[in-house]
């Protein structure tokens, strides 16, 4: 038997807490659970429609009746929140379908509300999917007119609230949009409806699959005059502070996977709940790599979602919500 004493630096052995799966779970720091997931869903007119989205494997454009079935399936997995995006039949320069009383999102919210299900209904508030030019606001002289857009965003939010939405989520990145929406909600008797601000929304290369799904690609130019420069983090904190001052209840960082530092900076700066949107391109990138056999989908997807959680997000908006909830229930992640 060796008489050599262990070196002092080996009295600390972090591996002791890694020897068994149950032990690793016991000391896990960042945990995932289905109740923190928000499932983004695309709703289009029709009945009995489940239309696959080629660039978003596993995702569909759903008619309202099919979306209700989808929501019930999500609830069985423990997911109690959805974020609705409308895919209208018609578009015009003012995006009038966004705020029409019989709009596709308004119709779907009312249908969801008819049941007794316990569900948080969030609705995206923007004009891009409803305008024939594909921009997020009114276009005047070839430019997106910030101030002319505010009233239409406020009108859209109020119409969603009147239909039964719990939370409206302005994503157009117009200056002053949260204040305009909060004022409109309160004036219309919807002071209880929350605002989840897309506070730090970047002009990202990762939105391509979403734009196919929603039919929202700009017909000219791009969105860099209103969405944020990906190089900036201090500006994100300024945007977040402004939205909180204007009445936001939740603030969002979008995208999430490529912006973990922004999520962390936001977490350290504010006390409000922070949402992070694991966007279409981030999701599709992992799905494509998995289909090619380059990564193990389950492990890679859960690792990314855990990183977003670890960075400080309280709410995870992800197309992988259903899959992640299943994997967690099977005890294979989180």
CATH superfamily placement: Aldolase class I
Question: How many DSSP E strands?
Answer: 12
- The helix content is 25-40%
What's the CATH architecture?
A: Alpha-Beta Barrel
Helix and strand sequence: HEEEHEHEEEHEHEHHEHEHHEH
What's the Cα radius of gyration?
Answer: 21 Å
Percent in strands: 15-25%
Q: Which sequence of strands runs across the widest sheet? A: 1-4-5-8-9-10-11-12
Annotation field: number of helices = 11
Under CATH at level 1, the class stands as: Alpha Beta
State the secondary-structure class.
alpha/beta
Kindly give the count of domains.
1
Oligomeric category: single chain
Average predicted local confidence, pLDDT:
93
Envelope shape: globular
Uncertain spans: none
Distance between the termini: 43 Å
Largest sheet: 8 strands, parallel, barrel
> Might you state the CATH topology name?
TIM Barrel
Structure summarized in a few sentences:
This protein has 334 residues and is of the alpha/beta class. 37% of the residues lie in helices and 16% in strands.
